[in-house]
Amino acid sequence: MTAADFDSLARFYRGLERLAFGRALERARFAHVARLAECRNILLIGDGDGRFLERALIEAPMARVRSIDASAAMLRIAASRVAPGDRARVTFDCADVRALTWPSAEYDAVATMFVLDCFTDAEARAVVANIGAATTPGAVWLFADFAIPDRGWKRLIGRAVTAALYTFFRWRTGISATQLPESEDHIAHAGFWLQDSQVSVFGLLRSVVFAREIK
Questions:
Q1: Within a 13 Å sphere around the CA of 25, how many CA atoms are in the beta-carbon half?
Q2: Which of 25, 34, 44, 99 is spaced 20 to 30 A from 144 at the CA atom?
Q3: What does pTM read for this prediction?
Q4: What is the pLDDT of residue 1?
């Protein structure tokens, strides 16, 4: 199991994103970030250059954040976004999330923004299950990623766009996936229920809030 290598794209990633999608991905990332306001222990997976982290620290002023990414270069950029007064609140881990073990019932929030699509369906299912076991009852899970619409010309466009993205990122980073995993289904199977969702760019982007069941 080899982690994808995003180091070579770290300096250019935001520019490439803007070139391809304008600010659409950024709006999708931040669509539900205000739901973190009352959280105290946030797990952030694959945030890349730290744009979500920067906003999360503002929206959740009492929270500590553990940010995990496989790219050391991305984490350095993310760290540069953290204000001096917030540095003690953030822990950065350079690691492949597929290989980590997790504490039980540790986090009251999880955010996965455009990262689960880097994994095969089996890998995404395992990652989600392991993370889910590390969350507290009632924890929120913020999710944003690409999607393929159900029918018509939008579906054709969605398939073409995601195919092009996978071709590019497999070439440049060596990600293991070749198609979108069933991430939302896996989050639901991990004990979370959908609270709210937002669709944009003709159904190509989805931003979702899940909450873990309280038993």
A1: 20
A2: 99
A3: 0.95
A4: 59
Give the pair of three-digit tokens for residue 19. Answer: 């070139």
The vertex-28 CA angle with 24 and 33, nearest 5°, equals 140
Q: How far apart are the first and last CA of the chain?
A: 35
- How confident is the model at residue 72, as a pLDDT? 96
CA distance linking residue 214 with residue 212, whole number of Å: 6
Q: Are 41 and 64 in contact (CB under 8 A)?
A: yes
CA-based nearest residue to 183, from 90, 101, 97, 119: 119
- Mind spelling out the 3-state secondary structure of the chain? CCCCCCHHHCCCHHHHHHHHHCCHHHHHHHCCHHHHCCCCEEEEECCCCCHHHHHHHHHCCCCEEEEEECCHHHHHHHHHCCCHHHHHHEEEEECCHHHCCCCCCCEEEEEEECCHHHCCHHHHHHHHHHHHCCEEEEEEEEEEEECCCCCHHHHHHHHHHHHHHHHHHHHHHCCCCCCCCCHHHHHHHCCEEEEEEEEECCCCEEEEEEEECCC
